[in-house]
Amino acid sequence: MHPDVQEILISEEEIAGKVRELAAGISEDYRGKSVLMVGIIKGAVIFLSDLIRYIEVPVNIDFMAVSSYGKVSKSSGVVKILKDLDQSIENRNVIVVEDIVDTGLTLKYMLENLTTRKPASLKTCTLLDKPSRRKVKVVPDYNGFTIPDKFVVGYGLDYAENYRNLREICVLKPEVYTKG
Ligand code: IMP
Ligand code: MG
What we know:
The protein is α/β, with parallel strands linked by helices. Helices cover 27% and strands 32% of the residues. The chain has helices spanning 12-29, 45-52, 70-76, 105-115, 174-178; strands at 5-10, 35-41, 59-68, 79-83, 93-101, 121-129, 142-146, 152-153, 169-172. Helix 4 links the parallel strand 5 (93-101) and strand 6 (121-129). Helix 1 (12-29) crosses helix 2 (45-52). The site of inosinic acid has 15 residues, from strand 5, helix 4 and strand 8. The site of magnesium ion has 3 residues, from loops.
């Protein structure tokens, strides 16, 4: 275990099992169609990479990078697009892939924005859901794990850009946050 980790919340094996389960559900729901998976970078990159390898319908991928504008926007839900999609999503079956849905502001913005681009369908898939922190109503169509109100890292999720490479979903030791 990494020395900064206090607790492993979800093991590598549990994640792998869940990824296959989600992929099986998506393959079933989109049978006879193709799907465009839109990953929100950077956090969703590892999840998306694992997920698509178990999806059995034709898959394309694209990425968006977003950030919320400072403090005010954290409550208002104003999100800035840092990197937009490379391609049109008109008439495509789109699934937005997130690492975690927390307040829901990011996902809600993504859905509103992508809806204006007229996809054939638009769904959301997240590895983790923290419903206790929700500020706006948004329910992911596919969810791996519902977790308690704890800050987690690993499997793509970061604290100050670190720990994305951990293979498990972990809670950090409190002293990590005070080290500066
Ligand atoms: P939301 O807009 O509040 O739903 O936030 C979503 C984004 O906040 C996620 O895509 C993550 O980048 C980040 N985030 C929320 N909770 C956590 C966490 O526990 N660990 C790491 N990142 C988090
Ligand atoms: Mg993210």
